[in-house]
Amino acid sequence: MSSPPEISILLPVFNGAKFLGPQIDSVLQHTRHTFELLAHDDASSDGSLQLLQQIASRDARIKVTGSHHNLGQKLTLLELSRRASGDFIMFCDQDDIWHADKIALLMDNIGAASGIFGLSCLIDAQGQPLGRTLHDHAGPPVAGRDCWSYLLGCNVPGHGMLVRRAVVHEGSFLGAPGAAGYDWAIAAVATFSDGLAYEPRAITYHRQHAENQMNRLSGQRKKASSWPRVRSQRSRGILLHDLLSALRGAITIPEAKRAVFAKLFAIVRHYLIVAPPAVVSTAHFKAQCHDILAPLAMPPDARAALVESLADCSLSALHPRQVGKDAWQTTRRLRKLVQRSGGR
What we know:
By secondary structure, the chain is of the alpha/beta class.
């Protein structure tokens, strides 16, 4: 019986036939580390499944499944993660190209960290360099251990990560549709576990084209923001709700920190779902957050800044001065989410 591969590479596919062949070829050229490439076709209509099966017939490292009904990216990745047998997990977009040394660089430099991510260079539909990186749009990389800014935003792309299998928590894939990305949740779990490293040479060539499902970027370079992945004020509460829900259940995070995330989750959920807008108190919310964060070794100015940001994203949608159609839509979506999760 052969031993399990070192790495499980998860490839969700939906109508990706146009660029799928070159991407898979760029992955298969890595030979220094053993891996399995788990691909799932999510009810494509362009022949992606047949192409995957054809390629898999020539390489035993590729394992292909498909579904008749579209699951969406998160649930597809959830199913793929359940099939993974490697000690490490990587995520593969259907239309990118991997540098020949990507896996080796990430494996060589992860050290004792829970995960590592690398540089993403942008290319056009023909594979030509655009002269920009993903960080030119989303801000500079943030790496290390206990990066509290990850509660507010994250510019770690899933396609550039390698993480230990233990930090790929199922809660990372179970948020509300259109809410926080799986990569944000997994990166946050990693930084609050044993840390997240950055390797600037580990290149993914991230393709930009008209059919991009995610991360379609304009030609404009974006100024670094404290909310690099948040697209609207209305969505902030949902993003934070989903993220804290994943963090409180991640067993790789020390118990003391998980307790903090559980308390933050409870207060955010209360203010977003339970408390009527007329009784929302910004001062009371901030005081509660200060008490919850008090046991953590954080500089006072960092704690104060975090509390301000938590209040902004948790209360802005339902503040008495801003109650309106968007606020009530946010409340309805969150209530449905809680009902689906059994009220936890």
